[in-house]
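Support request, please re-run this one:
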Amino acid sequence: MRLFSGLADYEGKARSDIDADGILDWGVFKENRFRPNGDQIPNEVSIIRDKGDVFLGTTSPEYCIIQNKATLDFCDLFVGQGDAGYKHVISLNRGEQIHIILKAPSFADLGGGDIIDSYFDIVTSHDGSQKFRAIPIVFRRYNGSIMPAPSGKGISIKHTKNATSNLMLARLVIGKVKAYFAEVPDNFEKFAKMKLDANATMEYFKVLYGGDNQRAENIRDRMMAICKGGKSASTFINCQGTLLGVYFAAV
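Re-run finished. Output below.
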């Protein structure tokens, strides 16, 4: 995967710049649905974008809307204190899904220009398809790859009755997220220094891809082949034979 390209870059910019561009300057509301004969459809509502009166999807009446403003307010908890900065703001399709990419100021330097940056993908949806989530991801500049973070699941909030209140209560876990931002560079630099021989590497893959069946064995064999050079050399620059190299092979 590649980091989002062809999008407005908000690095070093403020919430006011996002507001001025108007990407998320709209809200949504719920509306009852009706059959052609005029009868109301039970247990189902439409989600409508107020700017242009655009239909975004259907969901249950209990679905709690998290407005774009509330999502940006959540992001400002990090940006306002210098713990992260805005990178990209994405409204997919007509606004069914929203992604706000935050970049942490810290990074891991593996040497030789091999830099790993840490990000959070703040995701919400207006079509009922996803929870509100803050997903940790890492970006490797050397080969432009996006990878799941090696630890931490981030934040996940369902669109239920108290979703907006819960979003503000997420302040309680802000400390955990800040700690994650700080730990990423240290973890990757440690992984790059931790040597693994072939036996230790296979044991790692046995934990990651457990099972005694042929399929699991084939997966482990493929991972070992990757570690021995079956993948692009750029994957393993500065980390051949290390725990970090094994991690790159697995993702």
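The longest strand covers residues 97-109. Strands lie at 28-34, 40-49, 54-59, 85-92, 97-109, 115-125, 132-140, 145-148, 155-157.
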